[in-house]
Structure formats: C-alpha cells, structure tokens
Amino acid sequence: MAARDSDSDEDLVSYGTGLDPLEEGAGRMGRRSGACSELRSGHCAPGWATERDSVSKKKNGDEDLSEFGIAPKAIVTTDDFASKTKDRIREKARQLAAATAPIPGATLLDDLITPAKLSVGFELLRKMGWKEGQGVGPRVKRRPRRQKPDPGIKIYGCALPPGSSEGSEGEDDDYLPDNVTFAPKDVTPVDFTPKDNVHGLAYKGLDPHQALFGTSGEHFNLFGGGSERAGDLGEIGLNKGRKLGISGQAFGVGALEEEDDDIYATETLSKYDTVLKDEEPGDGLYGWTAPRQYKNQKESEKDLRYIGKILDGFSLASKPLSSKKIYPPPELPRDYRPVHYFRPMVATTSENSHLLQVLSESAGKATPDPGTHSKHQLNASKRAELLGETPIQGSATSVLEFLSQKDKERIKEMKQATDLKAAQLKARSLAQNAQSSRAQPSPAAAVGHCSWHVALGGGMATLKASNFKPFAKDPEKQKRYEEFLVHMKQGQKDALERCLDPSMTEWERGRERDEFARAALLYASSHSTLSSRFTHAKEEDDSDQVEVPRDQENDVGDKQSAVKMKMFGKLTRDTFEWHPDKLLCKRFNVPDPYPDSTLVGLPRVKRDKYSVFNFLTLPETASLPTTQAPSEKVSQHRGPDKSRKPSRWDTAKQEKKEDSVSEFLSLARSKAGPPKQESSPLVNKEEERAPESSTNQTVNKGVDAQAEGEGSRPSMDLFRAIFASSSDEKSSSSEDEQGDSEDDQAGSGEANFQSSQGTDLGETSSVAHALMPAPQEPPPSIPIQKMQIDEREEFGPRLPPVFCPNNKDKHKTKKEHRRKKEKKKKHRKHKHKGKQKNKKPEKNSSSESSDSSDSQSDEETADVSPQELLRRLKSLPLRRQ
Amino acid sequence: MAFPEPKPRPPELPQKRLKTLDCGQGAVRAVRFNVDGNYCLTCGSDKTLKLWNPLRGTLLRTYSGHGYEVLDAAGSFDNSSLCSGGGDKAVVLWDVASGQVMRKFRGHAGKVNTVQFNEEATVILSGSIDSSIRCWDCRSRRPEPVQTLDEARDGVSSVKVSDHEVLAGSVDGRMRRYDLRMGQLFSDYVGSPITCTCFSRDGQCTLVSSLDSTLRLLDKDTGELLGEYKGHKNQEYKLDCCLSERDTHVVSCSEDGKVFFWDLVEGVLALALPVGRGVVQSLAYHPTEPCLLTALGGSIQCWREEAYEAEDGAG
C-alpha cells in the first residue's frame, strides 16, 4: 500500500512537483469532503464543480485509475483540481499573453508543467474561511445588484466574461433572502507589466488567431462576436488548441487539422461587398491587431466609428458629448417676397436732411420726417405727377399746383428753351456765387477755390440732372432758386436767406422762401425716387465728359530751354503717381504700392469730351518763338502737336534758330506763367483775341499761315476758329495787328484756352452765332495734316539700312517729296476756297523744304531730310539679296 | 588687414577683334548677350533669330517663326527661354532647347522695337512704335497684356527692366522710369528722340542716347545730369549704347562705323574703335568681362581686350 502510494506519488511527481508532505497525509479526505460540502451548500455553482470534477477525473483517471484503480488517485485529482481552480484567473491572463506573444503557444509548456502546490498564504486564508474565487474581506449583506464588470477589469481584459463568471448570479437576482451574506467579489490583479519594447502604445503584433483562422472564410461578425471573442480567449487552449500553428489551404490540410472550407466550393457573391461603405468588412485590419476595445452590445453602434482606433487603456465615453443645438432658421412670414429693393441713394438722403434742416431752421416750421421720401410715401398725386399725368386740381401738395395754369404752360415752354439760356444763367449764377462767396466768407467758402469748383460742379450736375425749373418763367427767380440749391448742397444754414433778393419786401421774401423750400422738397423727392429706379450706366456714352490723364507732361518749351542749359533735374523731370497692375507687382515680386486702389496707370480725370483741346494736347508752349521772317523758317509742316515732338530730326537746327529772346521769354514764362488751371485775366482776352482771329479769319488763312511757316505750327486760334470759340468781334477786327509776335499769340492762345475751358458754357451762345459765318470752313483740314504727320511720326529713329546710305536717291526723293506736297496742295485746294493765298505759300514751302534738305545735305553729307529718309526706308529692300 | 587689397586692374577696353561672324540672316538688327555672356543672340532681318557661341563662332540654333524682321531679343535669367519682337508686331516667347514658339503675344499696333524679360522671366515687356509698352504675362495663358504703359507720346525705342523698375526711352524725347515699388512714374525730358537707354550696373544712373548725337548720364533719383558724351554720330538711326562691365566706360555705336568709348567720370573719349564701313547698329557688352559684340551690316564682331588669350579650343 505504502509502496503503491509512493508509486503513485512518484507517478504524480512525474507530472509535476511533488506534493507537500503536510498535505499528503492529512487533508486529502478532508479536502475532498470539503469540496463535497461546498457542493452541497450551494455556494459553488453546481455545474462548474461537476464539470471540473469530471474533467479532472477524466484527465487523471484515464491513466491512473485505469491502471491502478485506487483511492489516492482521487485525492491527487482533488489537489490538482484545487490548484487549477485557484489559478484560473492567472491562467487566463497567461493565455491572453500567450495569444498575444510574439510566438503563439509559447506558454504551452507552462501549462503542461503546473506546480500543484499551494502557498502558505493560501492555506492560511483558506483556514480562515476563505474560498477560492472570493474576495477577501468581511462578507457583505447583500450583493450590490448584478455585478457589473469593473472598468479596471475591462481595460486589462482579464475579467471573466460576464456570462460565464458565476452561474449563480441569475439566481441571486431573482431571489435575495435577507439573512444571506455574500463574500466580496474577488479582485483581479492588475498586470503591471513594464513596457520594455519600442512598439507603439497599443501595438500587439500580428494576432495569429485573427490572421490565420479568423478571416479565412467569412467576414468577421465583429459586433456579434465582440464579447464572445473576449471570452473565447480562455477556451482557445482547449477548443482551438489544435488549430494553433499554421494551417490553411496553402499548406495543405494536415491529419490533425480541421479541414478548411471546401476549396472547390463556388464562391457566392454574398461574400463580396456590393456596396461601398466607409467601414471595411471585418475590422479592416486583416489580422493586424490594432488596440482592441471592450465592447458592449448596446454600444456597438457607436463603436463602429472607432474600430481599431481606441488605444489600450482608453474607453469610449459612456455619455456622448452634448451636441450643439442647432436652431432652425426663423420662419418667414407667409407673404414674404424675397425681393430686395434699394434704398434711395445716400447723396439724396443727405441732401434731404440738409434740406429739412434748412427748412426747419429758416422757416421755423415743422417739417415731415426726413428719409420718408421713399416711393411708399408718395401719394397719388405725386405719383401721377411723376408719371406725367395732368394733376387733379384741388390736391395742393406740390409747388406746381400753386402755380396757375398759365404758369404751367410757361414752364413747359421754358423747359423746351435752348440750353443756351440755361448755360448763360448758370454761368452768371456761378459768377455771382463766386462773388457772393467772396463777399461774405462762410466756412464753406473759406475752404477755398477748389472746393468751390467742386461744389459748383455738383450743383450743376444736379441741376442738369433734374432739369426741373419751377421758376423758369422768371429767370431772376430761377437763378435765385438755383443759387439756393447750390448753397443748400453745401450745407449752409442760411442758404435761403442769402439767396433771397434783399430788395424784395418782407412779404415777397416770405413767399419766395416758402416756394423755394417746397420746390426743393419736391425736386429732391422726385429726384431720389426716380434715381432709385435707375442704375448708372457702365459707360456714359452720351456724356460730354471724357477721361483724360490727370497730369500731363507739359511745359516742353521750358524743359527744352532747361535741356539746352543742361539744367537737368527738377526742371526736366515730371513725377506722376502711377499705379502698376496688381498682377504686375506680383510678377515683379514687389508689394503693391497702392493696395487699396483699383486704378491702373495714371490717375484720370474727366474733361469735356468735345473740347478739341483735349485731343490736340496743345500745351501752352505754342510758343516756340518764331519771330523771324517766314522765309527763314524750316518749311516742314509741323502738326499742331509739334511742340510735343519738337525735335524729330532737326533738333539741332531748330534750336539754332531759336533766338535767345525766345528762350528768355519762355524762361520768364516758366517763372511767371500761370498754371493751367488758374484762370487767366479775362480782361485781355478780347483784345488779344482780335488779332488772332483776324489772322485766321478763315481756315484758309490759318492753313496758309501755317504753310508759310509763320509759326512752325499753327497757332491755337486756328483751331479755335475752326471748331468753337472764335467770335464776331474777332473777325471784325482789323488786320494790322497781324504783326504781333507769336509769343503774344501764344500767350493769348493760352488765355483763350483756359478761359474757354472755364467759360465755355457761358459763351456758347455767342459762339453759336460766331460760327455761322465761318461754317463753310470744314474741319477736315486737320486730318489731312495729321495724316502727314502720322506718316512721319510712324518712324522713330530708323533702323540702319543694310547697305550704306546711297546719296544718289536724293534727287528722286526730293521729287517724291515734292509730289507729295503737290498732292497735299491739291487736297487743300479741293477743300478750301481760298486760292490766292494758297499757291504762294505752297511754293514757298516746297522750295524751302528742298532748300532746307539741300542745306542739310550740304551741311552733313550723310544727313538727309526726313522725307527722303522715309522714302528711302520704304523703298529699300530690307532683306539682303 | 595685413595685406592691402590687390590693386584692381585698370579697365581694359575690348579692342582686339577676335572673331567676325557672318550671320547669314540679312541685316543683323540687334545682337544680345545671354545672361552669363556665354552665348549671344542675333536678330536678323530675314525673320530669324539665331543663337551663337560668339567665341567659338558656332551657330547653335535658329529660331524661325516671326513674320517679319526681328528687331530685338532677350534671354531669360535661367537661359530656358527667349523673347523677341519684330516688325510683325508680335512678341514671341521661345523655348531655347526645342526652338519652338511657346507663346506669341499679339496686341501691338506697330512693330516692336524692344523686348525685355523681367528679373524672373515671368513678364515680357515690349516697347513698340505704337508708343506703348506692354507687359505680357508668361505664366498665365492670358492673351492680353497685364498692363499697357501708354504714357509715351511717340514710339518707344528702348525698354530696360530692373528688379522693380521699367526704364523706357521714347522718340518723344522723354525717358520714363516706372517705379513699381513706389508707384511712381518719373519722366525726364531729354529733348531729342531717344534711341537707347540703360541702367548703370550699380543701378544709380541711367544712360540715355538720343538723336542729337549725345549720350547723357543722368542721376536716376533726381534726374540731374552727371555726364555728357559726344563725338560720335547718331542722328538718324536707332543705335545702341551701354556701359562697360564695371561701369568704367560709356560705349556707343556710331553711324560712322565706329564704336566710341568714353571714360564715364572724365567724359573724355577713350577710344574710337573702327569696326567697318557702314553703321554699327547694335552692340552688346559682356556682363562680367571686357568683351564686346558689335553688329554691322550682316555680320557681328567679337572684341576682347588686348591681353586676351583665346582659351583652349575657343579659337
């Protein structure tokens, strides 16, 4: 017996370490009985105990019992059973580690060799009444509900799966007697494994289960099997133990391995995705173990988004973040129509406010609320008026209705009156305004000349735009009214008082004051309402303004003298504000100097479109002084813009001819000469004009004069005579003043030019008359000239010919030159009626020109006249044969 | 400290004729160095543009595509592209390697006198007889110019570009300098039709040649006259002028078949280099070395200083 015992002991030892002698003799039966008593008491789950029992029996009994069939075996199994039980949690942890270890199944050996002994601590605890699977501590009265897995347990994945943890749990829930106490829940030890690798935080390596078996056939049911898989870990060793190792079709099916799916099976389409989803089937990892999260069935929806993204040690928030509350857009009123209408323009509203302010202050009356001049505030009569209907008598709301029928007719008449009168009026009113402003300096007037111009311009514009002349019948009154408007536009408080005629009686004044106020009100309202319905044209095609560069390079004469004196620098330099294109700045890697401006190029201003002088760009330097006799002159026909390009070919010669007097003069002018904008003394105007106009009574004359080379360029007056602003008096004046120096003419030309700019409007009437006798003179004489000029101008410094210049051509060129002149002459004849004078100058000029070219060629053999050059260049084959 | 700086070599003038190339493209309207001075471009009156190695005298490539004579050309900073303008009113952007036309900018109303790249070859500036300068964008496919500088009253004969300035000489006798950084236009009146302008290499001065047979050196900032150079003849033709590689001399073509060198500071004539019979119509100065290219008739000449020894194989 003893020997057998020892034999059996030895047998046992072969499986594990030897049992403690202490256990050996004493506790076997007791322990066995203890286990049985546990069974009986019902503290253990019956299924669990029996299963274990049977397993252990089967395991050990297979060999031992069958061979020897003796009791000690049973005792040994009990021990073994006990040790297994106690290590259950640890075992799971180990299995988990095994599954995730680099070499799967490496802990298999450890499983085989299990120490079957208990530590002293266990013994002591057990003696104190502790049982395996329980926590340490006083027994609690009642289990705190269904035990939920601790978060700590969850995280480390070591807890028993809830379903398999305790079979009795369900019972407890159902039936909870008062007098029953429970042991506290066992605590799962936290695995404080130091991290000794350099992997990422949640790196787990390739999960062999998933990589080899998991995805072989079907898609993972990730969510259904989530918890199951977590629980499965325990069973891996038992149920899937045989699968450890490489298996699969590629390696054949071993004898011990489960067969894979039929490799010849037809694939069903259901295995494939038919819809593109944001989530890959499975976890999208194909075996790579991303940090796996603990999942609850109910949270699966949420987890879907976080598959593979939750790090170990983190869990999903149980409470979702409170999402921002999105408020629905406000409900629109049912009758709302999404149409935007623009408010009346700011300018007019400000005007209104001014107006109303003025009204309230000057008349002391209560006025209607400003800014109510929208279309909705118009009453029927106003609308009717706007539409041009005949107003219904009786509803006296507008000034026009105060007027009698007769007055209205007269107004209509006056509306159709010529602009002439209006222009006159305006001009006069402007003049008066200027005077009055000078007489009584007000803050606005103190701003100065410029502001005056601006203000007047604005006033004019509005007046023009309105065309509303309620007092047209009485020009004086109308004038006062306009004055009033102008003042009001400037925001002058005492506008009304100032405009009223001081000679009137108090009553008259009061009446007029009322009238003006009402008229202004009406004007403003109609203006604003109408203007609100129209938008500005992109391009004002019928405006008589044209954009021209604000700054012009001028004063060529002064510059020329400066150049001659080699006084380069300030005298010869013009500086302009110039706006480069934004893209150009970008391309040049330069910051935009004017980031706020949309302007490109030189700043431009508006000028009168139909002023000839815009296009002639005739600067004041009409004054290349040419006091010499005509015969001395260079015969070249200089265009009106000669002064711009004074020295095309013969700069030197020309300069030669300029005498020092002229230089002196131009210098003097540069000092004393008034800037363009300033008005020249108007006093001299008439006298000065007379001589000029006499010289150029007709265009013929002008042309002749030009042909003669009297000035190397026609004087300003020629153009004025043709186009606009000569007057009767001029032509009537005597001819004896012809001898006036050009400089005088030029000066007067300047004056005329300036003054005509300023007083164009005022003079139009006289101009119109003045034009009457002259009109047989057709303007096209300019185009002809221009043509010629253009021909010359087209060529700057030319390119050298391929062959050396050949002087033999000269004769031919001269001829051709003459021929051209002839042609021109014919042209002129055809155009003009003035014959007598034509011929001589023409001859003169042609001979002169040839002379000059001759002389040129004499002077410098290689030099040739421009015409000749031109011709030569044209005829020269540029390509070498 | 211990050693004094080596004394700078006295400037040498290129007066040794190294090479004469018959370009075979009609009259050579302009000759231009590339950016580093190793190659040169010649613009022919037979509508072609040719790329040469001037020292070896080898023709590298012929660019044809212009509809009329080529009047000016320039190379980009990276030698990857060329631009040219000509009598066909077009500005052409070429690919150097392939010889293909990359872009053709049309818009000028007259023949194009002068073309320049900007520093980064993103914009071509072309001056035309139509009195405008147009800035063509090479980056985008935009057919119209980025900006048109039409302040000139007459044909634009010369355009030069610095990193932030555009210098233009016009036949109206004014030299205009558009300063992009300051957003200003400086217009200097010279009085006589300008044939050529250029910046000094230090960027402080501008050199202007005009049809009164005078070159003027103006202070860029103030417009003051720093020097005046006379003696050559330039009364009819559009001739080039430039400064030597170290700004020591002013160089100009002349209508009497010579190239004139003036000392920049003294203003005295240093050398009148006879090139041949006819008009020296164009010249180009090497950016770093005393090497000059001149164009006379249908050929170009390469000049070096006296001490120059032909490098290996470059003979």
UniProtKB/TrEMBL annotation, chain A:
Residues 50-62, 547-558, 634-660 have a biased composition (Basic and acidic residues). Residues 117-137 form the G-patch domain. Residues 809-838, 872-881 have a biased composition (Basic residues). Residues 846-855 have a biased composition (Low complexity). Pfam families: G-patch, HTH_TGH. Residues 751-767 have a biased composition (Polar residues). Residues 1-64, 134-174, 533-560, 624-881 are annotated as: Disordered. One of its GO terms (cellular component) is catalytic step 2 spliceosome. Residues 734-745 have a biased composition (Acidic residues). This is G-patch domain containing 1. GO terms for molecular function: RNA binding.
UniProtKB/TrEMBL annotation, chain B:
Coiled coil: none annotated. One of its GO terms (cellular component) is cytoplasm. InterPro entries: WD40/YVTN_repeat-like_dom_sf, WD40_PAC1, WD40_repeat_CS, WD40_repeat_dom_sf, WD40_rpt, WD_repeat_MORG1. Its main location: cytoplasm. Keywords: Cytoplasm, Repeat, WD repeat. It is found in: Cytoplasm. WD repeats lie at residues 21-62, 63-104, 105-146. One of its GO terms (biological process) is mRNA splicing, via spliceosome. Pfam families: WD40. CDD domains: WD40 (cd00200). It comes from the Eukaryota. Interacts with EGLN3/PHD3. Interacts with ERK signaling proteins MAP2K1/MEK1, MAP2K2/MEK2, LAMTOR3, ARAF/Raf-1, MAPK1/ERK2 and MAPK3/ERK1. Identified in the spliceosome C complex. Interacts with PARD6B and CRB3. Interacts strongly with GTP-bound RRAGA but not with inactive GDP-bound. Interacts with p62/SQSTM1. Belongs to the WD repeat MORG1 family. PANTHER family: WD REPEAT DOMAIN-CONTAINING PROTEIN 83, WD40 REPEAT PROTEIN. This is WD repeat domain-containing protein 83. It comes from Rhinopithecus bieti. The gene is WDR83.
